[in-house]
Specification:
The complex is a heterodimer. By secondary structure, chain A is mainly α. Chain A contains 14 helices and two strands; from the N terminus they run E-H-H-H-H-H-H-H-H-H-H-H-H-H-H-E. A two-stranded antiparallel ribbon of chain A has the order 1-2. In chain A, helix 1 packs across helix 2, helix 4 crosses helix 12 and helix 8 crosses helix 10. Chain B is mainly alpha-helical. Chain B has one domain: ABC transporter involved in vitamin B12 uptake, BtuC, CATH 1.10.3470. Chain B contains 13 helices and two strands; from the N terminus they run H-H-H-H-E-H-E-H-H-H-H-H-H-H-H. In chain B, strands 1-2 form a two-stranded antiparallel sheet. The radius of gyration of chain B is 19 Å and the shape is globular. At the A-B interface, helix 6, helix 12 and helix 14 of A face helix 4, helix 10, helix 12 and helix 13 of B.
Chain lengths: ~350, ~300
Amino acid sequence: MIKIKTTDRYNITALRSFMTNIFSLLAALVVISIIFLIAGVNPFFAISEIFSGSFGSLYGIKETLTKAIPLILIGTGLTLAFRAKFWNIGAEGQMLMGAIFATWTGLTFGESLPSYIIVPLIFLAGFIGGALWGIIPAILKIKYSINEVISTLMLNYICAEFLTMLIVGPWKGKERFGFPGTNNFPDSAILGLIPGSRIHYATLILAVICAILLCVVIYKTRFGYEARVVGENPDAGKYAGINFLKTSLILMAISGGLAGFAGVGEVAGIHHYLGYPASVSSGYGFTAIIVAWLAKLNPVYTVISGIFFAGILVGGDAIQISLGLPAATVEIVNGTLLIFLIMGDYFLNHKITLQFSNK
Amino acid sequence: MEDIIISTLQRAMVAGTPLLLATTGEVICERSGILNLGVEGVMAIGAVVAFIVTMTTGQPWLGVLAAIAAGMAISIIHAFSSITLQANQVVSGLALTMLGLGLSGMIGKPYVGKPLSIKMEDWVIPYLSDIPYLGKILFSQGPFFYLAIILAFASWFFLERTLLGVQIRSTGENPKAAETQGVNVSKLRYFSVIIGGGFSALAGAHLSISYSKSWIEGMTAGRGWIAIALTIFALWNPGRAIWAAFLFGGFFVVQYLLQPLGISPNFLAMLPYVATLFILVLISLKDPRKLNAPAMLAEPYKRGER
């Protein structure tokens, strides 16, 4: 008789962690293939289409990098929140609030200020917008013990309705000829693109810098240490005198603020005006959760996992056209990947041995 | 004016029905100690399966059964990862929601926008429906309304008054003690998660074959998340869930009542979500200790651990 025995594993090497991720992704790929088969699509063809659509051409690579920008920014912020076990599911709303603040700043001051002043200003405004929307759930959690999953989600819906209210009402621009949306940003407030692409490089550079900076914050500063203690051992944190409210406020301001940056990039770099919520963000706030998880909650790795998932988004668009699959396909791929990633954690944290006995 | 109020209340009951079903399921699930954030996704699966089966067979109740079966089946994923593999329940539930929304979108694509010609007749209760005002509001509703209330009462009885119910609650409060009493913690948690999934799918079935009689991607519109909030609001008690759900049903329909007053429809659409936060604050202000969440909610249980 074969008996499965599991024991806890304490020394987890970076290599083991990496290999676990790879095996999880491969296992997910098998399940995704089965789903494709059931849907009547050749899985080898579909999966190769996804990756050739995103990484197989110059156009694909450019689009992938464009979509990686918000994913890296939001994913980076989420690594910090998730390390403190603050389940911020509200990046979508924080991103929209960042876009709203940036739009107001750009449209109000853009005409009269030169580019080198207005561009930093709209980024600052976007950060503040996202941060403000992010600290609400922190206050609700610490002061009123309201589960942050619920509050961040509710704030997503509230922000989306608020944004729509603005663009069909007071902020509706004449340049849209009766359609909802604000006027275009003045030229000085529009972010520069890498020629021949939609990559707004300022935001991309900002995203990479933020990822590196946040890595330093998490591993090298007192605040980062406190945030990790809040997540891993809250009781010890209380004894050590960590101010939970302060720590949560700061980490959610950063997490929300980075999502706000992502919102700035989308409106000032790509659309140049504020439109419907679904056009500002195509679910980046949710996809970024998987980005953060694949990066094993290390901000620097979000740069890689962000590009990977941006590739899936771009490739997903490609197979919609070439194979006639619905937009929801990407969600299935993402959901399956996430399930296998968290299941993989079990094999990372446990040693599994088979015991053979004669019984 | 009288007519408007009656019809608003009547619609509040209809809007509250899926909330009540999903909340009841989540209460059972969370009482066993497992947090399931997959409600929204399972609801979407229930909605699409119920719609397709009803449309192709012409049998709404067959659609309902198929939806429940599908909801239970997909919930096994969450049960497996959070119980057997002791994975993070928040992330596992989110993944289930993503998967459910995605799968429902894929399966339902050919059915988007097609109207359902089969109608589920309202159950007009003899005599009771003649009561002025109340008769119209409470006793001339569709079958799902009665089903939701009966199931909520039955679940309350099950959790509070039956041995199995007590055992489920004990796995959520103190799994170690439950196990020493001979309770199989994993088995009961699996049972609770799967039952909860069935309830969520039933809520989805109501949305697609009774409430809107059509299928469109994302039609669950956050109701699954509100159900999770209502679970807290109901203090993990299916009995309390009844009035909590219908109060929130009211928040969903009152926007149509206020719209003619010239208030922005988007502003009114925020109402259910703002109300959720507001009420959670009120509960916490009143007496935080009354938030008697299951002690081991979302804590993985390892056998043989101290």
